[in-house]
Amino acid sequence: QVQLEESGPGLVRPWQTLSLTCTVSGGSITTNYNYWSWIRQPPGKGLEWIGYSTSSGSTYYNPSLKSRTSISTDTSKNQFTLQLNSVTPEDTAFYYCARGRFSPYGTSWGYDYWGQGTQVTVSS
């Protein structure tokens, strides 16, 4: 059973850095065909993909957030981390980490495991 759990501060000051960690159990973040994603949902809005890291550590980001976003992995702890710089109140959202799956041919099968999510509020 794969489980993911988000952790990090629930309140971030404007123009500071949002940092969240996703801890994965029941599976390795280095296992092939997996990718490890961050998704968020602002109040009253739909889900927004932030970015992901592949099993080999390659990263890909939503172009609208790329300049402020960094996803890193710590294989020794089986964790991956989101950093979002220069946050504003518009970054207030419920943040999720999730596992995605690629087919052996490289096509995405979407997400099969999600963390429960964590609320992050950007406020002074």
What would a concise description of this structure say?
With 124 residues, the protein is mainly β. Helix content is 0%, strand content 54%. The strands form 2 sheets. Strands 2, 4, 5, 6, 9, 10 and 11 form a 7-stranded mixed β-sheet that branches.
Summarize the structure in words.
The structure is a single chain. The protein is mostly beta strands and 124 residues long. 0% of the residues lie in helices and 54% in strands. It is built from no helices and 11 strands. Strands 2, 4, 5, 6, 9, 10 and 11 form a 7-stranded mixed β-sheet that branches. A 4-stranded antiparallel β-sheet has the order 1-3-8-7, with no helix packed on it. A hairpin with a 6-residue loop joins strand 4 (34-41) and strand 5.
Provide the descriptors you would attach to this structure in a database record.
7-stranded mixed beta sheet; 0% helix; 4-stranded antiparallel beta sheet; mainly beta; 124 residues; globular
**Largest sheet data:** 7 strands, mixed
Order of helices and strands: EEEEEEEEEEE
Structural class: mainly beta
Please report the total strand number as a whole number: 11
